[in-house]
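Bench log, entry 3. Co-assembly request; chain sequences pasted below exactly as received.
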Amino acid sequence: GENVEQHPSTLSVQEGDSAVIKCTYSDSASNYFPWYKQELGKGPQLIIDIRSNVGEKKDQRIAVTLNKTAKHFSLHITETQPEDSAVYFCAARGAGSYQLTFGKGTKLSVIP
Amino acid sequence: DARVTQTPRHKVTEMGQEVTMRCQPILGHNTVFWYRQTMMQGLELLAYFRNRAPLDDSGMPKDRFSAEMPDATLATLKIQPSEPRDSAVYFCVEDSANYGYTFGSGTRLTVV
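Structure output for the full assembly:
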């Protein structure tokens, strides 16, 4: 089955700086890669996703890049704000599969 | 605002007791998953249904866990008998064409 590795497990940045979280996946046929943000006491919320036919996607301060050859994808948050502090999860869905396989999460702390 | 509703939000029970968690999907006629979240294991898939039919429950301990979807508006996850190692946050997730993979707020289960 699919295996997703996520790094780093914790990340601290100064407000206004950029944050980058990286994930690798094992199934070369995986075709869908969402990112989730989980705040304390809440369920993960989808913040951005990318499909295998696209190399990059951007939504305001958030962007995701996908390198299919290397089987890795990354989340980029620019101009970080304190409200960006949360746990972020990457996930991958294998071709012909319904379920998502999640990374172990990155706890992002934005220091004012 | 799309929302998957889970009840109860919190449950504390004694070892050996039966626990029932409920989920009301947004639409119902899609794929509905049960995931478990712990600090050690992260987000683990327990079971899922597509159009109410069970497709995969290989992630569940079969001797104590059962998942059902008696109708399109209700999915249940039961644990009988519960054990301390079952303490976790249980999420219901629905995958729909309009909203993607949407998490419920979760049920935090503590077995003492």
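The two ends of chain B are 36 Å apart (CA to CA). The first strand of chain B starts at residue 5 and ends at 7.
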